[in-house]
Design a protein that fits this description.
The chain has 187 residues and is of the alpha+beta class. Helix content is 49%, strand content 12%. Helix 4 packs across helix 5.
């Protein structure tokens, strides 16, 4: 019995490592032409946005899928996209976490973004809408940058394109009063 259990655990570990190597392969392929960490984050964001779109499957089916399966099937809402982005970013050595943006009145989350540690700063990566937020210095913006200068969000060309289509601008206004929730989730 003990030998059978050890064989099962060993087989499971090998299968898990093989899947992890696939995630690494995908991540490495996506960033192969990037020369900076910032480029890697932007290219990973865009790749996940293009690969994973909401609505291809019923939500209850998507919730049962693993992140790898969501990637393979090309489906996921913003929180699923962020989770896959975090897994891919982790393969490049980035620490990351999810930010659930909460509405002021109900405390619900109309949108989820990633927070990635880049050069000792937690930058905001909006995977679900493929938005690149930049501060006045041209760097990827932090939540603090956004709370100090909301034009980073309101004057962003991609946000303007999406206004009315998604609740992005309303959700991002959470940064102006620092009432957003950072929920750390390991990829």
């Amino acid at each position: 019995m003990r030998k059978g259990f050890i064989a099962f655990v060993l087989a499971f570990c090998i299968a898990s490592m093989a899947y992890a190597m696939d995630v690494r392969e995908v991540s490495n392929e996506i960033v192969k032409d990037c020369s900076t960490d910032e480029q890697k984050l932007c290219v990973l964001r865009e790749a996940v946005y293009k690969q994973m779109r909401p609505g291809k499957y019923p939500l209850q089916d998507v919730l049962k899928m693993s992140p790898e399966e969501r990637w393979d099937k090309g489906v996921g809402w913003c929180n699923h996209q962020v989770h896959v982005f975090m897994m891919l970013a982790a393969q490049q050595g980035f620490s990351s976490r999810m930010i659930y943006l909460l509405t002021k009145d109900m405390g619900t989350s109309p949108h989820t973004v990633a927070n990635v540690l880049l050069k000792n700063r937690w930058v905001v990566i909006d995977v679900g809408n493929n938005i690149e937020f930049r501060n006045k210095y041209g760097e990827l913006a932090t939540a603090n940058d956004m709370s100090l200068d909301f034009t980073i969000v309101s004057e962003n060309e991609r946000v303007k394109e999406l206004k009315g289509e998604f609740p992005t601008l309303e959700a991002m206004e959470i940064f102006t009063n620092s009432s957003y929730l950072v929920k750390e989730i390991e990829p």
